[in-house]
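<purpose> Linking amino acid order to shape
<body> The protein record starts here
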Amino acid sequence: MTSRYIAIDWGSTNLRAWHYQGDECLDSRQSEAGVTRLNGRTFEAVLAEVTQGWDRENTPVIMAGMVGSNAGWQSVPYLPCPARFADIGQQLTAVADKVWIIPGLCVDRDDNHNVMRGEETQLLGARALHPSSLYVMPGTHCKWVQTDDERVCDFRTVMTGELHHVLLHHTLVGAGLPDQVASPDAFDAGLTRGLASPDLLPSLFEVRAAHVLNALPREQVSDFLSGLLIGSEVTSMVTRYDPQQTITLVASPSLSARYQRAFEHIGRSTQTLSGDVAFQAGIRSIAHAVAN
């Protein structure tokens, strides 16, 4: 396979692009021109800028992420779950000449309304690299995904990352705090609290009170809060799944390590996979078919 193609992860705040020939990455670029940060430019103009010199006219472009949302280049329909892995790469939406967007996935039931964009591409790569029946995909919105050999069966979302940011920067919990420093001990203390008391709401104001009363160092609030939120998430969610399932974490190494710590506390085994590696493997599998 020698065909060239361009793979793009276009999110809300950032854009990452890779220029491939087969499985060899010839070049990669990053931009802060996410879907919400175009600053008056068109999607076409941003794409032309980020791929300048990559022979766009003769090179197919495959994109995933929020670029396919109702705030993106074009609103691309979701595939309803259960969704076959094979269908993800076969139902692309063309938005320009030789430019396609990968569909997201959705669950639409009375007991679960959920959507994802971008993670479905990571799942394609994760399935090839680390087959599993339960993927946990930490991030701004953490996805808990059940799969079988052929399908994405179901998934749920926990807004742990976004909640951490909002509480720390836009509520009384983080008001007046100094610059934060890494503290494994503070993270473990928060994690222990979250795992033991997953009923989160009564604990949140105590984070504020703890640092006001000098029971928690003010520069360690971020890591304590991170532990508290992750502990609450893991304890609340893990009971939904078979305790015999191995959990595959798909995220950055630093974020995976935090969730691994939580799962270790409750005796659950995990394996890890870089989110970037999974995404690139997934989008390459789609791009190969298009480029050929």
Remarks:
- Residues 221-238 form the longest helix (18 residues).
- The chain has a mean pLDDT of 94.
